[in-house]
Every structure is written in C-alpha cells, then in structure tokens.
Amino acid sequence: MPTFSSRKFRPSSPSIPLSLQHRLAAAYRSRMHRHPFLLFGLPFILTMVAGSFFLTPATALRYERHDRKVKQLSKTEELGLKSKEGKGGRGWDINEEYYRLAAKDLDDWENKRVKRLKGEHDGIL
Predict the structure, then answer these.
(1) pLDDT by 10s per residue, the chain, length 125
(2) Which of 18, 83, 92, 119 would be 22's cystine partner, CB 3.0–4.6 Å?
(3) Cα distances (angstroms) measured from residue 111 to each of 19, 69, 107, 108, 114
(4) Taking Cα atoms as reference points, which of 75, 95, 72 lies closest to residue 83?
C-alpha cells in the first residue's frame, strides 16, 4: 500500500458550514477552468491598461520637475557671449568663427614640451 493515497480527501459531511468567502472562491475556481481568459486574462489586461493611464500624470510631473532644475542654454549662453542684438560683449556668429579658424595656418606648428614640476618624472630616457 502506498504511503500517500492518490485520491483527494473529501470529508463525508462538512462539520463546519462554508462561509460566503469560501463559496465564492469555490465558484470562481470552477468557472475558471471553463473561461480562463474572461476571469483571469481580461482583468489582468484591464489592470495594466488602467495603471498606465493613472501613472502617466505622475511620470509627466516627474519630468516637469526635472526640466525646471535643468535649464537648457542656447549656444551663445553656453559660450558666455551675447548675441549681436544684445548690448555689450562681442557679437558672435558661427560663420565668422569658421572663417577665422579656417584662415589659421595649421601646417606650420612646433611641438613644445611642457615644463615639469620639481620631482616629477619628465619621461626622457
């Protein structure tokens, strides 16, 4: 005789009447086998969709707070220069800067060693 029987234990007469919660759970489990998508899949999908709609404003608020902290600068503000329309400072134009750099002679240069600090190895063998 096997140690554990393969049959499910079912008491002959329930001594304790089933509560409403137990009856509802038993009815749900029995219907779950017949309609698994309707009773499990559909509520799960609806929960995911509703959660995304409820979390959208929260994530938008998060990114708005981050944008307030980080201010995006224009090119002239990054370089610390004022535009030609603004008063004071040197007027800056990308085309002028390009032509100024293009006019430099980049082929005629000399490699110069940087003077080392006292006690620092200079790399000369």
Answers:
(1) 567 777 776 766 666 667 888 888 888 888 888 888 898 899 999 999 999 999 999 899 988 888 877 776 666 666 665 555 555 556 678 898 899 888 888 888 888 888 888 888 877 76
(2) 18
(3) 92, 44, 12, 10, 10
(4) 75
| Buried-state track 63-91, b at ≥16 Cβ within 10 A, e below 16 | eeeeeeeeeeeeeeeeeeeeeeeeeeeee
The two tokens of residue 69 are 């902290």
Rounded distance between C-alpha atoms, residue 86 and residue 76, angstroms:
11
Cα(1)–Cα(61) distance, rounded to whole angstroms? 67
Of 101, 8, 35, the residue nearest 43 (C-alpha): 35
What are the residues whose beta carbons fall under 8 Å from the beta carbon of 84, sequence distance 6 or more? Answer: 91, 92, 93
CB 22 within 8 A of CB 14: no
Angle in degrees, CA 57, 62, 66, rounded to 5:
145
Instruction: Please report, as a single letter, which amino acid is at residue 53.
Output: F
Q: State the sign of the Cα–Cα–Cα–Cα dihedral 77, 82, 85, 91.
A: negative
